[in-house]
Amino acid sequence: MLRLLEIEFHKLRYSKASKILIITYFVLLTCIALFASIKFDIGPIKFHLAELGIFNFPYVWHFNTFVAGLLKFFLLLVIVSMVSNEYSNKTIKQNLIDGLSKKEFILSKFYTVIAFSLISTVFVFIVSLILGLIYSSYKEPSIIFSDLEYLIAFFIKLVGFFSFGLFLGVLIKRSAFAVATMIVLFFVEFISYAIVSGYNRGTDVADNIYQFLPFKSLWNLIDEPGSRLSAVQAVAQQVGEDLAYDYAVHWYEIAIVLGWTALFIFLSYRLLKKRDL
Amino acid sequence: MDTILTINNLTKKFGYLTAVKDLSFTINKGNVYGILGPNGSGKSTTLGIVLNVVNKTSGDFSWFDGNTTTHDALKKVGAIIERPNFYPYMSAYQNLKLVCKIKGVDFSKVDEKLELVGLLDRKDSKFQTYSLGMKQRLAIASALLNDPEILILDEPTNGLDPQGIHQIRTLIKQIASNGTTILLASHLLDEVEKVCSHVVVLRKGEKLYSGRVDEMISSHGFFELKAEKQSELIQVLEADANFSSVKTEGELITAFLNQPMDASVFNKLMFDKGITLSHLVKRKESLEEQFLKLTNNQ
After folding, report:
1. Which regions span the lipid bilayer (chain B) (predicted)?
2. Range of B253's domain?
3. Do B257 and B280 have their domain in common?
């Protein structure tokens, strides 16, 4: 396993484009900290985001994993191009001739996906911990280390999403087309979801079906955190709206995403095995 | 003799097209083999199958003693097929280091092999800045990193200038003289004739000939003759049972031999019959003529 990771790391580390994307991604992750400095001070309206409680433990785990989840697109480009470039440079053929088996080839990519996800998770953990320690109103260890399941959900979300990208890279062999296909699939799922839920207003039909589809299942892992803020809830209560959402990370949500991940990796392997290069 | 590769009844179909048809041959240790055939005759497909990048339709092949999996066998094989494929953004040294990691070879081999192909002074240049000849030499260096038992080369001189072709051929001969078995696919006849000891001739995926190169040229050769008494010469030749046929083109007479005959013996024979020759050359048919005969007659 280490050998395969080392091979993949060697390929990535000399590629300028990948390096820039990876650095951008981590810089942007760090930029979550900049939310803390968002401050409006226009006469009577005083607004300081950090004081709204977004960095309160344990809420910070939810908020930061959600925001960091939006940035995963940068790493997706790295994943997709690291697969499709092997096709366009024909190095995949040479790799196989040099003695890498098809299984090892897919595994080396998958291990890289896991490594990227793990590093991102640890990174988000550290950034959130620091922000929390600075701004949180509660600093008891029992509160700090509660709700950590959001980090697990974040890790699974990244692994699932990147595995999807990996599969499309193997399937389509061109990075631009693979990314475009992913965007098209996203809109197909999103628009059809809107239509289905439009026809079934007031019921859970759309949600019950779409929780099994790739993008919705990834989205479900970490629910939107905005409405959980005490400030937002207070406003909602005043206008008589009940925002009692279920924010928890559920085991079946994780299971669905893991199912997709396994399917994507298996299909990538099958595809590579059956294809003549 | 140790067997390196055995191919039995190998067939590959791309849809309706049969690229390789029922092909069988064996590669033994220590020889230089050529796979000869015009473009599209199934050479690269055959190599692709044994190198595990193309899936076979039927038949089988086995590496070494037959108990090695293809995956393990490939670690003892060095191969380049078609164009040299490397990561354009990496230097030669970085590219070869990656191959070392894949093959599980020590990094110290990198400089050694770069020196062998004469690229040591350019080892830190990016691959994309290399000329085609340099890329091809780098590919050979890469294939040699694990000191392979067999080196497989597919059209190694394709697209190179005469100097590049010469460099690659010298390199191949040098490698062969060290005892490495070589399998060379080519559509260039003189290349196979110059470099190989054994040859497999393919046409449209079918094997036409396999065996030693010198046995493929099975005829006893022919004489090219000129003489002042041309009509007498033709008469004598046609009466002689040693010759199978006689052709006349202007002044030049070509007489094909039935059995071995030395030029000096023939010269004396003519002199005894009162015919003085102004031109006498004994030649063998080239591999090219044999090859064209083989590929056209079927």
Report:
1. none
2. 222-297
3. yes
Give A67-122 pLDDT, tens digit per residue. 888 888 889 999 999 999 999 999 999 999 998 999 999 999 999 999 999 999 99
Which chain A residues are closer than 8 Å to B51 by Cβ? 96-97
The enclosing domain of B204 has a CATH number of 3.40.50.300
Chosen domain end from B216, B240, B275: B216
Give yes or no for a contact between A267 and A106, defined as CB atoms under 8 angstroms apart. no
Is residue B74 less than 8 Å (CB to CB) from chain A? yes
> In chain B, whose CA is at the least distance from the CA of A108?
B102
Residues B47 and B122 in one domain: yes
Largest CA distance in chain B: 76
Please check whether residues B226 and B113 belong to one and the same domain: no
Closest-CA residue of A relative to B143 is A98
Does B17 contact A at CB distance below 8 Å?
Answer: no
* Disruptive mutation site among B17, B50, B87 for chain A (greatest number of A CBs within 10 Å): B87
Q: How far is it, in rounded angstroms, from Cα A30 to Cα A25?
A: 9
Interface check for A141 against chain B (CB to CB < 8 A): the answer is no
**Do residue B292 and residue B188 come from a single domain?**
no
Confidence band of A193 (pLDDT split at 50, 70, 90): very high
B87, B94, B102 ranked by CB distance to A99: nearest: B102
Q: A231 in helix, strand or coil?
A: helix
How many C-beta atoms lie closer than 10 Å to residue A214's C-beta?
A: 22
pLDDT in tens, B187-199: 887 788 778 889 8
Residue that is last in its domain, among B192, B216, B240: B216
- Beta strand B243-249 with B198-203 is unpaired
Find the mean pLDDT for residues B112-138: 91
Q: How many Cβ atoms from other residues are within 10 Å of residue A45's Cβ?
A: 7
A105 at the B interface (CB within 8 A)?
no
What's the half-sphere exposure (Cβ side, CA atoms, 13 Å) at A189?
Answer: 18
Closest partner residue to B101 (CB to CB) among A6, A16, A97 is A6
Based on the fold, state whether residues B260 and B278 are members of the same structural domain.
Answer: yes
Q: Are residues B172 and B238 in the same domain?
A: no
